[in-house]
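Entry type: protein chain
Record version: 2
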Amino acid sequence: MHYLIQENLFKERNYNLILDHLDKLGLTYDIVSIIPYTDIVKKRKENDSDEFIDFETNHKNIFCFGSVKFAHISKRYEWFPGSMYNDNHDYQVYSKFYKDHLLNSDCLIQGVLSPIPDTIPDMFFARPCKDTKLFTGGVFMRDSWYEMVEHLKVNSERNIEYDSVMFSKIKNISYETRCWVVGGEVITMSEYKRGRFVTYKNVDDNLYLKDDVKKLVDMYQPADSFVIDVCETVEEPGVLKIVEINCINCSGFYEANMQKVIDSLNQKFTI
């Protein structure tokens, strides 16, 4: 299988490990870039060069790592698997299956441009329903929320009128962990937050957590491969909750063992 890796992943943790592992396995790849405000894909002339040229490929068995925009663009090509992005990554879809296992099952969903109702506290959590990376989910005050929405209206590359957002009360989270799933199996896990502090830590040796995540995965799988973020709260220790589902093509690596991910993707999708 051939890999396309968007250049902005140079900032990602473990990026070089991915390239080293691809080289070790003898797998081919191209570094690509998307011209801003267009859908035009360019590829690096040589993988150690700064020059980008018109993108052409005869490969059909391709997997992409990059932005949500790149995941959308890749769907236009007859690549397999290309991108796993689909409508199932929408909170309004997968919430029907995970129900109370979701951290924010008590959320309110409405359009991003709609006024915040009085039932929402002055300080609240909000995130896009779809995995569009329209904005980063987080805690907002009403004033800061409306300021951000105005910024999105002016600076977004697309019309955000029909984007939906989920609003919820702020939860007291003990830790958060990102889990990579390929073919229904939990491949690798990285803790990325403990309390209020960012912590990047591989937790593949936590077999109890892996078993609990697998139970959630068995309830519903939005794609053949995906990323699931889970957590525990201070109020309910020992009860695993789903924070969100993300597209595997465009999720941050943290301290996940990306060599395991590459191996699993290759075994699952090479034709």
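Comment: The chain has a mean pLDDT of 91.
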